[in-house]
Amino acid sequence: MTTSSAASPPLAPPLPAPPPSPLRRAGPVLPVLPVVAVVVLLGLPVAPDSAATPADAASGLVVLWAAVDTVRRARRPLTRTAALVLGLPVVGIAVAAAGAVTTGDAITGLARHLQVFVLVPVAVVLLVRDRRGARLVLWSLVGLALWQGAVGVHQYLTGTGALYQGAGIRAVGTFGPSDVMGMASVVAYGVVAATGLALGTRARRLGVPPPEGWGRVVAAGCALVLLVPLALSFSRGAWIATAVACGAQLLLAGMRRAVKVLAAAAAASVVLVGGLGVGAAALQERLTSITQVAAAPDQSVVDRYTMWAAATDMWHGHPVTGVGLKAFPAHRDGHASLALSSGSDTQGAGQAFRRQPLLSPHNMYLLLLSEQGLLGLLTVAGSWLALLVCALRRLRHNGHAWDCALPACGLLLWQLVNFLYADIGGPSTVLTGICFGLAAWWALARDGAPAPAAEAGQR
User: So where are the chain's domains?
Assistant: First the structure.
């Protein structure tokens, strides 16, 4: 005797998951918008002798927002390695602040150094969640560079820039003649970021969809266009640092690609500088002066060498902790030779003639050594070196965020090379903290680069 049972109804196919809402897709990008706002605010004109700018105020709000967001998410914000590397500069800075000449110098110097080297980088690490957020910050740097570069080129063509060899041809953007390195730094950041974004294609070999083709083409075009305002800034230090950073990115991306890009850059330079006569005579003289700084230096080079010697002499007198934060001007005349001039002349770009005092050695490493001693050099510069080592090590072993890793490493390298010829100061200084933050995001952040399979699934 057999029993029959009713046939089971067929299972209904699972319903497709609803597509994520635009707000959810933009979720990882939203926290980084305050960082982008800081970059955008640097496009505003800067008032002469301003102690603070809207970008500086916004950077404080970014730090506050990062702290609130971290508490709201209720998770450990940094790994032990990140906390150690990013917190190490606090030691040297705090000790040097205790030795400042005045209480006002101690407070302002402590706030500025912590802002640039600790607080803003940590905030960027906490707010940049993935590659999309990092790319947004990188493209904002490129956009700012294009704006400042356009203003600078207009200044050169109309003779309304800073005074250079008796003519108002030096491109300074909206920063004015008192901060001639401002536009040069911003444009250089844009060149390095655009070069890294254009070269970031190694992800193809790792199974991750690379950045869109049009994005790479646009980035490459931006990098070539930005070479013009970079040249018209007449900043030898920015030129050298940009060449080193972009060359390193090209070599990391592969020799074949490096040859192609260098050929394109050389052709563009011939057309834009030689063929169109964009500052040919002045640029040639400025380029030649790079190799003549020892044979026949001009007064600016003499002043720089003299201040370097003065900074070294200060360190000899205070080898461990230095003379104190912002104390270089107070001790300068007691250690400098008679070859030092009373200041540099600035004029043009809407500002009258004025004598700009020489308040720093124009070398960040010597500034650390003179004001913070060996303790500051080991803690602050040691933190930068640790960042570079960690970033390059991760770049070697973990290439799935290559399109963001190359510009992050390039910006860090540019900053470290440029510090041989410049130091912090001026409205554009806040970008230094953002660049350190991007490098730290790649090198140290827990979520700096999601796994290839996970990110591919999100697409």
Answer: 50-69+77-458
